[in-house]
């Protein structure tokens, strides 16, 4: 068996710049992986929650839940790219994803036939996502413009999702408008130039 020389790690200027700005890339990657895991688990649980929005009242809530669900998947895909750019990766085992998630699982409530109970779960998930992406934004502000920009876009959409569910639960206007298509992600979607 021949001894192959150990492959040298590539020099990544993008990472070097971030480190020179004083940001610990390993800590950032840990936070990003946990936040991204939360987006994936939320996407999964929102699928179940959406299916249980039944009856006359529930049927009208499915579209808004679907927008939030698909946009969370978009957030997962968007930030996964950044994790790999920074030299990180995601768990190889899907079971570990839920274990490291930055947010609690958005379980189907026992009283799922009451759409307001499902809306409460959706609201709590969005509020956790907001806190998580705000932490990423704070951590990267002035140090990692690319991650900061992506986190800000995600944060703004999470704030919008929270407003939707507050409107539905408490009757407070949110300014929600129908998306052009389900899961559009008006701020976080990739443009045709990326």
List keywords for this structure.
mainly alpha; 6 helices; 194 residues
Please give the share of residues in helix. 55-70%
Major sheet attributes: none
| CATH first level | Mainly Alpha
At CATH level 2, the architecture is Up-down Bundle
- Range of strand content: under 5%
- The Rg value, from CA coordinates, equals 19 Å
CATH homology-level superfamily: Ferritin, core subunit, four-helix bundle
Outline the structure in words.
64% of the residues lie in helices and 0% in strands. The protein is built from 6 helices and no strands. Helix 2 packs antiparallel against helix 5 (115-140). The model has no long low-confidence stretch (mean pLDDT 90).
Provide a short characterization of the protein structure.
With 194 residues, the chain is an all-alpha fold. The chain has helices spanning 13-20, 25-51, 55-85, 94-100, 115-140, 145-170.
Chart the SSEs and their pairings.
Elements: H1 13-20, H2 25-51, H3 55-85, H4 94-100, H5 115-140, H6 145-170
Helix pairs in contact: 2-3, 2-5, 3-6, 5-6
């Amino acid at each position: 068996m021949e001894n192959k020389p150990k492959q040298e790690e590539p020099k990544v200027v993008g990472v070097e710049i971030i480190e020179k700005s004083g940001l610990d890339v390993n800590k950032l990657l840990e936070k990003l992986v946990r936040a991204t895991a939360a987006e994936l688990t939320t996407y999964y649980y929102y699928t179940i929650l959406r299916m249980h929005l039944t009856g006359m009242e529930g049927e009208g809530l499915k579209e808004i839940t679907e927008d939030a669900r698909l946009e969370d998947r978009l957030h997962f895909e968007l930030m996964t790219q950044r994790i790999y750019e920074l030299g990180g990766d995601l768990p190889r085992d899907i079971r570990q994803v839920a274990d490291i998630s930055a947010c609690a699982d958005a379980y189907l409530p026992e009283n799922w036939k009451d759409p307001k109970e499902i809306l409460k779960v959706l609201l709590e998930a969005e509020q956790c996502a907001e806190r998580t992406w705000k932490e990423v934004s704070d951590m990267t502000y002035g140090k990692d413009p690319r991650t900061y920009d992506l986190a800000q876009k995600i944060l703004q959409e999470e704030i919008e999702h929270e407003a939707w569910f507050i409107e539905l639960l408490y009757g407070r206007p949110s300014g929600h408008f129908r998306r052009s298509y389900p899961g559009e992600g008006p701020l976080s979607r990739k443009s045709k130039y990326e």
